[in-house]
Amino acid sequence: MRWADLLALLPAAPCRLAAFPFAALFPPPLAKGHLVSSRYIFLLAGGCLLAAAAMGSYAVLLLIPATGSVLVLLSVSPAHAHTWVFALQMSWQTLCHLALGSQEPDPQDARPAVALSAIMLLTQKATSLALDIHEGLVPLQPGQGLLQRALPLCSYLLFFPALLGGPLCSFGRFRAQAAAGGAPRRPLWAAGQRCLGALALQGLHAGLVAGLAGRQGCAGPGCLPHAWARALLRRLAYYFHWVLDEALLEAAGFGPGAGQGDLSIHDLWTLETTHRLAVFTRTWNKSTSHWLRRLVFQRCPAQPFLATFAFSAWWHGLQPGQVFGFLCWAVMVEADYRIHPFLSARATSQGAKLLYRGTTWVFTQLIVAYILVAVEAESFSVLWLLWTSRNSILPLSYGLALLLLLAKKPKQNGACPGLARAAG
């Protein structure tokens, strides 16, 4: 199964949908500090049950690094916690990608892909928690017993609403919401609204699939209309995936804070109407972008922008298409930051501005489609077909324009920090 196919399969999985009534049963706090341990146990047990139901025997691949990360956090000093957890998680995740990727894929068995996705999300949570401990944001309180210290950590890494998806929730927010006392039972209308939005997105996706099915035309990596339509359908699958993930978190009382989710109506409008690839990239998968900014960009002494995209390719699996696609994405965003100031300064009349915005919107759509096709490529032969097709004309033109503008003048101050959120 290809990496991108996971996005269409996970939201429709029966085990995922079965987590909604389980989330509704999540016990509310009766008084401050009361039932805190039972809520941690409920979240952890729900995560283990969901992992077993969705992954079968592959759930062991998730439980091993989760247990190892907790043991590391409890035994290593805070100054070295992040280094050890990062090494453990990325080594294990890379081994799983190589081992499961080398198997002959079974179209009827989504469990390996589900397990890989859950391991990637576990890496996010484990490294985020390790950074919190390293920076002193989360004290481990050594005076407590081992079980009292380990239970919140295990629950956070494996709690069921965020096991298979969802925006990254910080450990501090998780602990505060799990231990909140005296709060009334949260309303379910927010989760219901998100579910309705997910149904609307799925209906739009199904309608576009039906509309495209009856059309005769070109197909393959070299067909621009086919690549654009495929990218649009894939984006709708992403949107459905994110909205359903956030609905599950809302149902369990762990909804993301303002601006911390992966998709809002404003974000959806921005993604589909922006004429700037850099704006699209900053808005895409925001929680992962914030995580990459904190994990890589802010900690990399040299070439942090390129390092962020390179690490994103590693985190996604290091398949040939992923390496090429993410590095191409980095070059295109870098070009975008330089090309648009050059073009906008010359679009002085209203007609010129409309032409500039309309043309660059089309360019952004086609470049996003090109990157998506590249990321999905599983072999060098498919990449070669893409590279030698006419779809490569626009990315090559952006790359040439970048070289010319680099030779002409230095990049404007302040552009680089905005790029840190680009590698989602």
Automatic annotation (TrEMBL):
GO MF, one annotated term:
serine O-acyltransferase activity
State where the protein is found: Endoplasmic reticulum membrane
Q: What is this protein identified as?
A: MBOA4 acyltransferase
Q: Which UniProt keywords apply?
A: Acyltransferase, Endoplasmic reticulum, Membrane, Transferase, Transmembrane, Transmembrane helix
In its UniProt record, which GO terms are filed under biological process?
lipid modification
Chain coiled-coil ranges: none
Q: How does it sit in the membrane?
A: Multi-pass membrane protein
Chief site of localization: endoplasmic reticulum
Cellular component GO terms held in the UniProt record: endoplasmic reticulum membrane
Q: Which sequence ranges are marked TM in the entry?
A: 41-64, 354-375, 387-407
Pfam families recorded for this chain? MBOAT
